[in-house]
Structure formats: structure tokens, C-alpha cells
Recover the amino acids of this structure.
């Protein structure tokens, strides 16, 4: 218990120092324009994933591939809405019972960051799973269409994903809604769940390999 208590104190001290450093360099405040804008990367990831899913369902040229799309999308969004978000909001936050940096936000708890976990998971879904599937379908439908190969290059995907997750976490800190460790924990939790689903869902959507209905 003493070890856990000291670790919690050290973590809290680290978070306070990180917030002070960020406040001194760029400013941390409730209602921060930059913070709110970066925080909106979370719903943007969800919106893009929903749009890509709908596009794939509409443009699949075989019933078999359309069924695979529906199955993959069902798994992905179920993991987000029925596993990740309830785990963060209903289970972990009440147990951790950690107050947010700004008293304005004290009506809800802080650890871990729901925005960061959502952005990490859904941006990974979009970049690693859905966008490559969209590109595969486009190339299948229009063989002469030339798209930059960098769009689905692993290095590009990873860079965009890390940037998306990190920018969202930064936005939550700048908006004074979360501590640094809240955002790191949210990102790590979402990464674990994303890893659990990627193998199965990517296999369903890799290569249309379909014939016309």
C-alpha cells in the first residue's frame, strides 16, 4: 500500500510539473481555442470511420464482401462503444476517482482520458483498417486510378496515428481537462484494444477478391 501511495504521489507531482511547464510555454486554460480544436480530433476520427464504413458498404461489388464489411464494422464499433468507452467512463474513472485539473470540470473524473482513448482507437481503425480497404476498392473499380502509395505505407500510417493520438491528448491538457498521465493511460488502453481487433478485422477487409453480383 505504501508503494502504491508513493507511486501515486510521484505521478501526481509529475503531472503538476508537466502542466506547469506547458502552461508557461503555450498556456493552459479552460476554453482554450487550440485545446478545444485539438480535442475535436476525437469526434473527427469517429466521423471519418463511419463515413468510410458507409462508403465501403455502398460500393462493395459483391454480396460476400459486403457481408465481410458489415461484420468487420460491427466488431470495430462494438469494441469502441460497448467495450472501450464503458470501460473508461463507467468502470475506471469512478474507481480512480481522480479530479480534473480545472475545478470547472470537477463534476466528472479525469483518469483516463476518454477523448484520447477514443481518438487513438478510431484513428487507428480509420488509418490501418478502413482507409486501406477504401483504396483497395477504388483501385478495383478504377484500375487506371493512380493513388500515392504513401497513403497506405506503414510508416505513414504509424506517423499519422501517433500524431492524431498525441495531438488529441495535448488538446485535452491545453483545455485543462486532463493531466498528462490521463492522456497517456487513455492512449495505451485504446492501443491494446485496437491490437486485439486489428488482426481479425483487417483480414476481413484485406483485398476485395470479389466477383460481380
Amino acid at each position: 500500500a505504501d508503494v502504491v501511495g508513493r507511486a501515486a504521489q510521484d505521478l501526481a507531482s509529475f503531472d503538476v510539473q508537466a502542466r506547469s511547464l506547458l502552461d508557461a510555454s503555450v498556456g493552459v486554460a479552460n476554453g482554450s481555442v487550440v485545446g478545444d480544436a485539438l480535442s475535436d480530433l476525437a469526434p473527427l476520427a469517429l466521423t471519418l470511420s463511419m463515413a468510410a464504413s458507409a462508403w465501403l458498404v455502398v460500393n462493395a461489388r459483391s454480396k460476400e464482401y459486403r457481408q465481410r464489411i458489415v461484420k468487420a464494422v460491427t466488431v470495430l464499433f462494438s469494441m469502441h462503444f460497448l467495450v472501450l468507452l464503458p470501460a473508461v467512463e463507467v468502470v475506471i474513472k469512478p474507481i480512480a476517482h481522480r479530479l480534473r485539473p480545472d475545478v470547472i470540470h470537477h463534476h466528472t473524473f479525469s483518469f483516463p482520458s476518454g477523448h484520447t482513448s477514443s481518438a487513438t482507437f478510431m484513428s487507428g481503425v480509420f488509418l490501418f483498417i478502413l482507409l486501406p480497404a477504401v483504396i483497395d476498392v477504388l483501385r478495383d473499380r478504377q484500375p487506371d486510378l493512380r493513388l500515392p502509395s504513401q497513403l497506405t505505407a506503414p510508416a505513414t500510417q504509424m506517423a499519422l496515428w501517433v500524431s492524431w493520438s498525441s495531438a488529441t491528448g495535448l488538446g485535452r491538457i491545453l483545455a485543462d481537462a486532463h493531466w498528462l498521465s490521463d492522456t497517456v493511460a487513455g492512449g495505451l488502453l485504446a492501443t491494446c484494444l485496437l491490437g486485439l481487433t486489428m488482426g481479425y478485422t483487417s483480414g476481413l477487409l484485406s483485398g476485395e477478391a470479389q466477383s460481380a453480383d
Remarks:
- Residues 63-96 form the longest helix (34 residues).
- The chain has a mean pLDDT of 89.
- The helical segments are 2-25, 33-39, 41-59, 63-96, 114-141, 154-174, 180-205.
